[in-house]
Design goal:
With 183 residues, the chain is an alpha+beta fold. It is built from one helix and ten strands; from the N terminus they run H-E-E-E-E-E-E-E-E-E-E.
């Protein structure tokens, strides 16, 4: 009696089909993983940008509210400017403005103590010069009337070309009234 040899294992065709299925599943899973990473990175960038903008707004509002006066022209109709000069309660002068730091444009507070940047190096006011920035101070007020300043600016992610999909930008705006009226 002869025994027929039994073959165990997979045929070449079965191996090729299983490898193709595993490859397709791997491609789909890697695309989902990459998409999730991009979304997470963009969310982190937006969070950082919003936090930076909010801190800059809060700092400027506090400086305006505590200022003795605004020396930038204020009138009843509202005067727009890219910088705002404040006289502090100690009679020192503080200028809120856009400054080019050598690589990007940043929002800054300049006083006798020096320059204090209000934005991080991760964000820019846009462009290589402050003339292209969207920073605007609109001052309303007059003699014997408390001045009100509307602050508006746009921050963008630094180090990314303007047309790139991953670039993020955010616009910030608020108004601040002066508590101290210079008579």
């Amino acid at each position: 009696m002869k025994h027929k040899p039994t073959q165990t294992g997979f045929t070449l065709l079965e191996m090729v089909v299983s490898i193709a299925i595993v490859a397709m599943v791997s491609v789909v899973l890697s695309q989902v993983f990459i998409s999730t990473l991009r979304t997470n990175t963009k969310s982190e960038i937006l969070k950082d940008m919003k936090q930076t903008g909010e801190i800059a707004l809060e700092t400027m509002v506090r400086l305006i509210q505590n200022a003795k006066s605004v020396t930038t022209a204020c009138d009843y109709a509202g005067s727009a400017s890219q910088s705002l000069i404040l006289i502090n309660s100690d009679d020192g002068q503080t200028t809120l403005e856009c400054i080019y730091d050598g690589s990007i444009t940043r929002l800054a507070s300049t006083s006798a103590q020096g320059v204090e940047y209000l934005t991080t190096p991760n964000v820019t006011m846009g462009g290589a010069s402050c003339a292209a920035s969207t920073l605007s101070f609109v001052c309303k007020g007059g003699a014997g009337v408390s001045s009100s300043v509307t602050i508006s600016f746009r921050l963008a992610q630094s180090g990314v070309a303007a047309g790139v999909f991953e670039q993020s930008s955010e616009t910030f705006q608020t108004s601040a009234g002066m508590r101290n009226i210079a008579q």
